């Protein structure tokens, strides 16, 4: 007898589980396990053949998130979680030369076959986002493994809204000794400051690392507008790449403050202006001689219901930029909404181009970097889409 309660699926050959999709929706369940939210459960088909183990949540639409597909009875002790995290750590750290880049995503939830948890590394500090009760139950375990892997500090970052949604009770806190803020990181050789306590998400948007590098490569002699700049990631690369002027716009005063500090840290004095302002207001009255415009808004579609309004927002944003950019200019346009896929995003940008009535070509299709892997069985883990457009 297994120590774990069993969830039985309706089907003998549940297509999504056979295809290793980690989510079991409530409609697919024949028999619920006798378990509490967050417990580890066994999952079997209707013939009682074991398919894998996952985290149970009877209140969520996603009744179970599978973290281990296996035909063998297993138990999940400290050794299992240590091996799981160590294996990810080994291949992720091999991606980067720490002298060039010491900030990366160590665990990308389902993308790394570990649902319910995100771990971002900023030099000596691991910032953990707990997304479900199942991983909240493993918190201390995960904290101690991260310290054993050699990180000096571990911070648990808990979002209030996530707490309500998925029954996570905790507040943000240090698992280790507290560390003073900000942390100075290095990314593709560029130094910048990150505040993991006060910053957005885990402190920084690591998923744009490679796209920032492309901006840097194309910025020589250019006038660049970085909208939704946050702490100036794209702006720093543009300046390092030889831009003649870079403007950063963000509505968050704290983000702009850190953006200015980042520019000072990296360059001392640089041709940079910052604006604490709503991007939509800025675009209405902006200058029309930018060579490069970056559009990296927050996720406009937080859920499936808001896709239509979000699409309008993305279209409007792209339309303004296409209308005003200099002839021959480049637009880096992004969407990080999970609910807007690549095809829909391209249709939205097409709509903007049609309304702008200017020649627009796609030079590159952009995505998330390799430390944010896309689980091939879980298309939802592909969330960042971007296009590099030429207008004119
Ligand atoms: N490009 C950034 C990440 C952008 S995150 C990077 O590479 O690090 C989205 C940013 O948009 C946040 O900093 C948020 O403060 C800002 N924001 C959200 N809505 C905004 C609006 N209407 N106008 C200006 N900034 C906005």
Structure write-up:
This protein has 392 residues and is an alpha/beta fold. The chain folds into three domains: 6-69, Archaeosine Trna-guanine Transglycosylase, Chain: A, domain 4 (Roll), CATH 2.30.130.10; 78-174, Transcription Regulator spoIIAA; 205-391, 3-Layer(aba) Sandwich (Rossmann fold), CATH 3.40.50. It contains eleven helices and 20 strands. A seven-stranded mixed beta sheet has the order 16-15-14-17-18-20-19, with helices on both faces. A hairpin with a 5-residue loop joins strand 4 and strand 5 (50-56). Helix 2 (78-93) packs across helix 4 (139-148). It is globular, with a radius of gyration of 22 Å. The termini are far apart. 44% of the residues are buried. The model has no long low-confidence stretch (mean pLDDT 94). The site of S-adenosyl-L-homocysteine (SAH) has 17 residues, from helix 7 and helix 9.
């Amino acid at each position: 007898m297994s120590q774990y309660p069993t969830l039985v699926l309706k089907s003998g050959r549940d297509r999504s589980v056979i295809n290793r999709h980690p989510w079991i929706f409530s409609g697919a369940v024949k028999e619920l396990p006798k378990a509490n939210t967050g417990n580890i459960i066994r999952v079997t088909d209707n013939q009682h053949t074991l398919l894998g183990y996952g985290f149970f949540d009877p209140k969520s639409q996603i009744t179970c998130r599978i973290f281990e597909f296996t035909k063998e009875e297993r138990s999940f002790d400290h050794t299992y979680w240590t091996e799981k995290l160590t294996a990810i750590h080994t291949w992720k750290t091999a991606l980067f030369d720490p002298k060039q880049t010491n900030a990366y995503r160590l665990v990308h939830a389902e993308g790394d076959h570990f649902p319910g948890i995100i771990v971002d590394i900023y030099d000596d500090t691991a910032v953990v986002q707990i997304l479900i009760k199942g991983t909240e139950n493993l918190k201390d375990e995960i904290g101690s493994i991260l310290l054993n892997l050699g990180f000096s500090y571990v911070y648990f970052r808990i979002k209030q809204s996530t707490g309500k949604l998925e029954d996570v009770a905790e507040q943000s806190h240090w698992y280790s000794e507290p560390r003073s803020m900000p942390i100075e990181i290095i990314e593709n050789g560029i130094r910048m400051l990150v505040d993991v306590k006060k910053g957005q998400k885990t402190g920084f948007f690591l998923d744009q690392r490679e796209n920032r590098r492309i901006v840097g490569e194309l910025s020589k002699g250019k006038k660049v507008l970085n909208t939704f700049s946050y702490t100036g990631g794209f702006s720093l690369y543009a300046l390092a790449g030889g831009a003649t002027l870079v403007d950063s716009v963000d509505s968050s005063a704290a983000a702009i403050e850190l953006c200015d500090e980042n520019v000072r840290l990296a360059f001392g004095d640089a041709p940079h202006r910052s604006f604490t302002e709503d991007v939509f207001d800025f675009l209405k009255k902006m200058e029309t001689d930018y060579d490069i415009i970056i559009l990296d808004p927050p996720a406009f579609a937080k859920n499936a219901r808001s896709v239509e309004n979000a699409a309008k927002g993305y279209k409007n944003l792209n339309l303004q930029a296409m209308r005003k950019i200099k002839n021959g200019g480049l637009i880096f346009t992004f969407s990080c909404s999970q609910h807007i896929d690549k095809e829909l995003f391209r249709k939205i940008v097409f709509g903007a181009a049609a309304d702008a009535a200017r020649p627009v070509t796609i030079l590159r299709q952009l995505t998330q970097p390799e430390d944010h892997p896309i689980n091939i069985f879980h298309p939802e883990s592909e969330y960042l889409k971007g296009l590099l457009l030429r207008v004119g």
